[in-house]
Structures are given as structure tokens and as C-alpha cells.
């Protein structure tokens, strides 16, 4: 028996019949969208039928899709300013995983990383998504402007000298307890 299906536009082919070993001549060359031919015996077909395109494979079941498994945490927590380190992913059949990190920004918020894979049969995995949460758990460092302690003459006007933070956040200053008409020490909280 002979099977000649070259120069077609095949996208799938199932020749399972229980009698594949009876096929002596087999040709499916020039079918650029044919990734998998479903057969009775994968090893027999691969060994004996070599007139196939490079992307074409033989399998007992061409409907198998890869399953993607993420390495590491999901969601992944990233400290602001640390950048994103990809933890990777694998597939159960060794198919290559493509990773799309374009959405990620090193700013407080939640971002999605997308994982896809296509096996040698041309079957796509179900897309897997990792959530990356960028958080800011580092307290800002406040730097006072001017002297500390600040010395003010009795009865003089208090002038707040201000403060800054290392991350640019706003400093709330409460100088309501300062009374320059009374001798003593006042505490000004900076938050």
C-alpha cells in the first residue's frame, strides 16, 4: 500500500487503521502546516516513513497539548526598586516556553506575566499568567533641614526649617506644641 499526499495544504492527518505496517511507501512532503500525523505505531512510522517535512512528527495521539508549570511563587512579591527577576516555567513535554514581561513596571501595583508554549504537533498550551505585585515596604528616611535641636530665643517667632525624605515622599510636620513665649523644650514630630 502507498500513501502519497505531497504538495497539499494539509493541517492534520489521521491514518490510524491498525494496519500501518502494511504501508510500504509514504510521502507527505510540502505540507508546511502539517505538524502531526496520527498513526498506529510512532516508532515504526518515524523509522520507515521519512518523506515528511521537518516540522512534521508522528504520534499515536496528535491532540496532546503541553501543560505549563510555573517555577516559584504566584503571585510573586517584588520590592519597589528591586526590578523583576523571572522565575521561569517548564512544560510537561519539554516544549519551549515563551514569556511576555512587557506589562511589568518597577512601580507599586500588580502586573501580569504571560506564559505560552506550542508543542511539536502545533498544539498550544493553555496560557498561564503569573501576577507580580510590586510593593513598597521600606520606610522613608527623614532628614531634618537645619540644626537639631533648634534653639529659639524666648518670645521670638518659630520658623520651621523643614525636612526631606530619601524617596521624595511628603513629610507631615506638626509644630503645634511649640510655644516660644514659654521657656522649655518642645518636640516637633516629623512623619
Describe the structure.
The structure is a single chain. 4% of the residues lie in helices and 27% in strands. It has 191 residues and is mainly beta. The mean pLDDT is 95. The chain is rod-shaped. The chain has one helix at 42-48; strands spanning 2-4, 13-14, 25-27, 36-38, 57-59, 68-70, 76-79, 89-91, 97-100, 109-117, 128-135, 142-144, 163-165. It is built from 1 helix and 13 strands.
List the helices and strands and how they pair.
Layout: E1 2-4, E2 13-14, E3 25-27, E4 36-38, H1 42-48, E5 57-59, E6 68-70, E7 76-79, E8 89-91, E9 97-100, E10 109-117, E11 128-135, E12 142-144, E13 163-165
Parallel strand pairs: 1-3, 2-4, 4-5, 7-11
Antiparallel strand pairs: 6-8, 9-10, 10-11, 12-13
Essential attributes:
191 residues; mainly beta; rod-shaped; 13 strands
Mean pLDDT across all amino acids: 95
The tally of strands reads 13
Percent helix among the residues?
Answer: under 10%
The sequence of SSEs as H and E is EEEEHEEEEEEEEE
Q: Any low-confidence stretches, pLDDT <50, length ≥5? A: none
Tell me what portion of residues adopts beta-strand conformation: 25-35%
Structural class: mainly beta
Instruction: Give Rg in angstroms.
Output: 34 Å
Distance between the termini: 86 Å
Strand order of the largest sheet: 7-11-10-9
Could you give a short account of the major beta sheet? 4 strands, mixed
Envelope shape: rod-shaped
Tally of contiguous helical segments: 1
Amino acid at each position: 500500500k502507498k500513501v502519497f499526499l505531497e504538495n497539499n495544504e494539509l493541517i492534520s492527518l489521521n491514518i490510524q487503521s491498525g494496519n500501518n505496517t502494511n504501508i510500504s511507501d509514504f510521502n507527505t512532503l510540502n505540507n508546511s502546516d502539517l505538524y502531526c500525523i496520527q498513526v498506529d505505531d510512532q516508532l515504526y512510522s518515524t523509522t520507515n516513513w521519512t518523506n515528511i517535512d521537518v516540522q512534521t512528527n508522528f504520534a499515536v495521539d496528535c491532540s496532546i497539548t503541553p501543560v505549563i508549570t510555573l517555577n516559584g511563587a504566584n503571585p510573586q512579591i517584588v520590592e519597589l526598586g528591586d526590578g523583576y527577576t523571572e522565575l521561569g516555567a517548564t512544560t510537561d513535554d519539554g516544549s519551549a516556553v515563551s514569556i511576555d514581561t512587557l506589562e511589568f513596571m518597577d512601580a507599586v501595583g500588580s502586573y501580569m506575566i504571560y506564559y505560552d508554549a506550542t508543542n511539536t504537533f502545533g498544539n498550544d498550551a493553555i496560557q498561564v499568567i503569573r501576577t507580580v505585585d510590586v510593593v513598597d515596604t521600606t520606610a522613608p528616611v527623614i532628614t531634618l533641614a537645619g540644626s537639631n535641636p533648634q534653639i529659639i530665643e524666648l518670645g521670638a517667632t518659630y520658623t520651621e526649617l523643614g525636612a526631606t525624605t530619601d524617596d521624595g515622599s511628603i513629610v507631615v510636620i506638626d509644630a503645634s506644641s511649640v510655644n516660644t513665649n514659654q521657656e522649655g523644650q518642645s518636640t516637633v514630630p516629623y512623619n
